[in-house]
Design goal:
The chain has 2 domains: 140 residues, ATPase, nucleotide binding domain (Nucleotidyltransferase, domain 5); 183 residues, ATPase, nucleotide binding domain (Nucleotidyltransferase, domain 5, 2-Layer Sandwich). The protein contains 15 helices and 14 strands. A hairpin with a 3-residue loop joins strand 9 and strand 10. The chain has an 8-stranded mixed sheet, sandwiched between helices. Strands 11-10-9-12-14-13 form a 6-stranded mixed sheet, sandwiched between helices. It is α/β, with parallel strands linked by helices. Helix 11 crosses helix 13. The structure holds adenosine-5'-diphosphate. The site of adenosine-5'-diphosphate (ADP) has 13 residues, from helix 10 and helix 12.
Length: 390
């Protein structure tokens, strides 16, 4: 059963055509710099050898979808429906839903909570409905998995009338990835996992506490700014800092927003880059700010793993995923050092292995199993589409 998965950003449109039964990917790619000079489509497909790039004027998502259709057509594969990654489902998507006029309206209604993503995603859904009138579309919101978090963890201790009127709560992010990580870990360890802390460490980063498949807490909040230190985001800080920056620092609301989302995190601490590869290299060359960026990232990750363990009332497994989690053996080792007091022990040889496969990297005597679990959000989205439309 084949599914087309679409992940639209404000200036990009990623796509993947895959078979949910065999997990074979027939075509995948990214339309980049939509609405900007120098736009192009990069893709791979069973219809052509190797990576392809088409220099294409992409004034809007509809034009980009035209290229996607040609690439999909060339594979000769049909598909049952289209799954759309939506960053913010707000209070309307406790689970994935088939697109109707009403549910498309919901994606736009909650867009003020994720303006950079939801409007573009809603536009992409509209384009797909127009271009494929006979195919069903499904919204798979990143927030859905977190909707089941217990109230004690998702409620903000602000006045009830304010919280209710403005729909303030912990929505979290990366939910589709955390859901996949639980599923893959369960398949890999069977009865060996009950209390998992899932660590999605990319340029955006979040942890999720999962007890027997139930989401108990996550580190991101109303928006994806909360929790861990990220590439350019500050993560958790004293909320009064926001007021202080405006009152005493003289920064405007928009300047504070930009500072905390785009000029902070690893980039700010290292003063070099938001990319952990650059930071690791600079740290090796003796740059003290880069060393501190790694130290702070690892410290906060270890600390919040413990917070998530409390949400689960126990921990038997830690799973690492996404760019840093899957690739940076150094960061995994740094976090493990900080958790050594509670018996976490990595096998240095297993930790050094590079592979696209799920794998155990802790020693047999480690008190907690540590895994690397390459995430696959597209597959998870496709599974939801197969279930709703198959
Ligand atoms: P996103 O999807 O949120 O943009 P990714 O999951 O692609 O992010 O992760 C990007 C991060 O992963 C970057 O900080 C990048 O430096 C890091 N990363 C990728 N490969 C490696 C590597 N081999 N070693 C260390 N960090 C890596």
């Amino acid at each position: 059963m084949n599914v087309l998965v679409i992940n639209a950003g404000s200036s990009s449109l990623k796509f993947q055509l895959l078979d949910v039964d065999t997990r074979e990917v027939y075509a995948k790619g990214n339309c980049e710099r939509i609405g900007i000079d120098g736009s192009f489509v990069g893709y791979e497909s069973i219809a052509v050898e190797g990576k392809q790039t088409i220099d294409a004027a992409l004034p809007d998502h509809k034009t980009a979808m035209g290229y996607v259709i040609d690439i999909i057509d060339a594979t000769g594969k049909d598909f049952i429906g289209i799954g759309h990654r939506v960053v913010q489902g707000g209070w309307y998507f406790p689970e994935s839903k088939i697109v109707t006029d009403e549910s498309l309206g919901w994606v736009r209604e909650v867009a003020p909570l994720a303006p950079l993503h939801n409007y573009a995603e809603a536009d992409a859904i509209e384009v797909c409905r127009e271009l494929f009138p006979n195919k069903g579309n499904v919204v798979v919101a990143d927030t859905s998995f977190h909707y089941a978090i217990p109230e004690r963890a998702h409620r903000y201790a602000l006045p009830r009338d304010v919280v209710d009127r403005l729909h303030i709560r912990k929505y979290g992010a990366h939910g589709t990835s955390h859901r996949y990580i639980w599923r893959a870990t369960k398949q890999f360890l069977g009865d060996g996992v009950h209390k998992l802390v899932s660590c999605h460490l990319g340029s955006g980063a979040s942890l999720c506490a999962i007890a027997d498949g139930k989401n108990m807490d996550t580190t991101m909040g109303l928006t994806p700014l909360d929790g861990l230190i990220m590439g350019t985001r500050c993560g958790t800080i004293d909320p009064a800092t926001v007021v202080y920056l405006q009152r005493v620092g003289g920064y405007t609301v928009d300047e504070v927003d930009t500072m905390m989302n785009k000029q902070s995190g690893l980039l700010a601490v290292s003063g070099i880059s938001s990319d952990s590869r650059d930071i690791e290299q600079a740290a090796d060359e003796g740059n003290e700010h880069a060393q501190m960026a790694i130290e702070m990232f690892a410290y906060r990750t270890a600390q919040l793993i413990m917070v998530m363990a409390q949400a689960n009332e126990g921990i038997d497994t830690i799973a690492y995923s996404a760019g840093i989690g899957e690739n940076s053996s150094r960061m995994r080792a740094e976090v493990a050092k900080k958790l050594a007091w509670m018996g976490v022990e990595l096998d240095p040889e297993l930790n050094a292995v590079r592979s696209d496969d799920i794998r155990l990297i802790s020693t047999p005597k480690s008190a907690i199993k540590v895994l690397v679990v390459p995430t696959n959000e597209e597959y998870m989205i496709a599974l939801d589409v197969a279930e709703l439309l198959g």
